[in-house]
Amino acid sequence: MSRRPPRGEYIETDTGNKVARKATLVGTQNIMLGGKTVIQPEVMIRGDLNTAVSIGRYCFLSRGCCLRPPGRMYKGAFTYMPLRMVDHVFVGPGSIVQAASIGSHVHIGARVAIGEFAIIKDYVRILDGTVVPPNMVIPSFSIVAGQPARIIGEVPEGGHDAFELRDLYKTVGNNPQPAV
Amino acid sequence: MAPLTPYTYIQCPCSDESSPDADDDDRTFDPRAARSNYSLYGLEYLLYCEDCHQIRCPRCVAEEIVTYYCPSCLFEVPSSNIKSEGNRCTRSCFQCPICIGPLAVNSLEAQPDQTHLAAPDTPSASHGGPYILTCSYCNWSSTETGIKFDKPNSIYSQLAKLYNGGEHRLTPKEHKERRKEALQASAVSGDPLPDQTLDVETHFAALKAFYQSQLADANASTTGLSSLEGLGFASPASLSRIMSIYTGGSLHDKRAKSRIGTMREALTSDEGLQLASLDESSSISALRLHHASTIPPTTYQHQTPHLGALPPHTGGARFPSHLRPIPCLLRTKRSKRCPLCRHIISKPEAKVSTTRFRIRLVAGSYVPSISILPLNIPQPSPDGALAPLVPAQFLLKFLNPIFEPVRVTLATPSKTPGRFGAKVTVLCPEFEIDANTDVWEDALKDGVAGKDVAAGARVRRGTVGEDGQQQPEVGKIWERGRNWVSIVVEVVPASLRLDLLAATGKFAGGEGVDAGPLREDEDVLEIPMFVRVEWDADTGGDDVGSGVGKDQKEAKEKRELAYWCVLGLGRVRQ
Ligand SMILES: [Zn+2]
Ligand SMILES: [Zn+2]
Ligand SMILES: [Zn+2]
Ligand SMILES: [Zn+2]
């Protein structure tokens, strides 16, 4: 056995993904990471449900959140369908995501529940504690809150850059840089 | 109390009420004034007019609707349909009348049926009607009001033909025919025609038809008298005005001026007259029955049931069985114009599926952003509140977004407005920030390099103290980077003790000292700050006619932008 450098908290892949050693990724053959995605400790991704979980670039899965593909009765059998997430998606701590698709530049707050087959478009902000009912469609530039979720506002024109997660990506990992 | 994240809000110039001649430099903006709530915005909410060189806010821009769409099916609705069909989705998008969650169309047959699981896979064709609307949040279902549908699509038009309970609702044409038959029958028998109860839609349609015919009659007998009487109650002009509000402007009539006189109101249920049913004993007893199961009789017997405040979309529903699914309200994409020069300052692409903008002049690309960082906070309480009467230091970081170096001048009142004025000192109220260069390089590098170069170029200007810590110095900036500068502001929060307030008030001989209890958020330390930004802008290229390229330096023009902003630093400990 050769001597190895001390193990960091994160596994950093060639494509720049930073996956915490304490994250639970089950069924990794069904989990696709686009690169530069951060997966914090205690995150769970359910790739064991015979369908894909695909995550784009610069996504940030906070501590204790869970991604689980949605399922329903289809042609007489209970079937799971893919969960798709595009780029720059932030999922807050303790949130549970069972959406069918999440667009790019989406901020999901802490302790949010996103019901099965929900469709979330681009530039959407979901505030802490929101419960998005199953099958709900949330159009682009919506600010969403409540139980059940309702659209409470619009993302202003000057608020688009705030969804960028490039800088946040740099602040975690085995060699984190201070926030700018 | 929740800790407060520091914030910066900017005041839009549109709220400046001072007249142009009263240029009073001593005037201080009070962020606590009642009106200030309406003029302060986060930088991301502000736009910028490049022609007026001024900040524009959501309150002063003029909006124009580019696209109407349904937020649920994301279908674009032509504006002509809005006039004819109203502002709700006319496909199959509904909200739950109980919890406003989205309603899904489900086949009644495909309800969780355990035998199905064992049975051989049957094609989806077996998922035939009838169909129902169900809420996936609270489990409400349209079967609770007795409504089922034959087809899974165009639920809106199917629902329009159904009463709760599933009874077929007459179309206006059928309605008329029925009425005609009844009229003939009553003519034969000699009995008076009974009044009928109308549902909301029929009621509106009847009234609309009646008023339209009234207007047509009034137009026929045009007289040429003055228009002023036209504003009275029940006059044709006000009627047509109200009609155009409720029916989308299709009735707007240019000859409205010439009509006077009054018109009669609807007299029969055909014309839309609906007599109010004042005998509500049946409703009351139904309410009693409804509640009897849940509430012990002693508590409700002496209460009158609440009969007012009916939800608008349900046509006066008082019982769960009266509820109707709510069709989804359409949303819009809007472009925005400068209120003064009418130039477009924001214009989204019309298509619902795209998030691109044709024009998007956000204030953040013209106005320096100000971020607040704690530097030296002595004795903070666990929730981060500031200690009263102890100087605390904050860093203000100004980031220059434009491609020219800017000169910044700051001014704050030495004592913040309000009962508990804090002492404020900006250690360096005048400084320059370098131009925002190489952003493209920065963006392209994507990785580590860009930001590191900037970080590496940090220059600290303060002197280093004995403990190796940098000491803030008056007149010097704290730190400088590629296109940013940070400066130190020192505050001494006032004590929030009301007895002290009263004592000092008496000592000063003031009579009107308000020693009332602490008001909401009065413990938040807010500093009003006047910011003036000056720079030399390129004017070259704008005027084609002027002597081109004689001297590049002469093509520069002095620009200035000045505005009030408010810095929220934190709460003061009580
Ligand atoms: Zn304004
Ligand atoms: Zn729709
Ligand atoms: Zn519901
Ligand atoms: Zn303008």
TrEMBL record, chain A:
One of its GO terms (cellular component) is dynactin complex. SUPFAM superfamilies: Trimeric LpxA-like enzymes. Keywords: Cytoplasm, Cytoskeleton. It is found in: Cytoplasm, Cytoskeleton. InterPro entries: DCTN5, Trimer_LpxA-like_sf. The keyword Cytoplasm applies. Pfam families: DCTN5. Belongs to the dynactin subunits 5/6 family. Dynactin subunit 5 subfamily. This is Dynactin subunit 5. It comes from Schizothecium vesticola.
From TrEMBL, chain B:
Keywords: Acetylation, Coiled coil, Cytoplasm, Cytoskeleton, Isopeptide bond, Phosphoprotein, Ubl conjugation. GO terms for cellular component: dynactin complex; stress fiber. Subunit of dynactin, a multiprotein complex part of a tripartite complex with dynein and a adapter, such as BICDL1, BICD2 or HOOK3. The dynactin complex is built around ACTR1A/ACTB filament and consists of an actin-related filament composed of a shoulder domain, a pointed end and a barbed end. Its length is defined by its flexible shoulder domain. The soulder is composed of 2 DCTN1 subunits, 4 DCTN2 and 2 DCTN3. The 4 DCNT2 (via N-terminus) bind the ACTR1A filament and act as molecular rulers to determine the length. The pointed end is important for binding dynein-dynactin cargo adapters. It comes from the Eukaryota. The keyword Acetylation applies. Signal peptide: none annotated. Pfam families: Dynactin_p62. Belongs to the dynactin subunit 4 family. This is Dynactin subunit 4. InterPro entries: DCTN4. It is found in: Cytoplasm, Cytoskeleton, Microtubule organizing center, Centrosome; Cytoplasm, Cytoskeleton, Stress fiber; Cytoplasm, Myofibril.
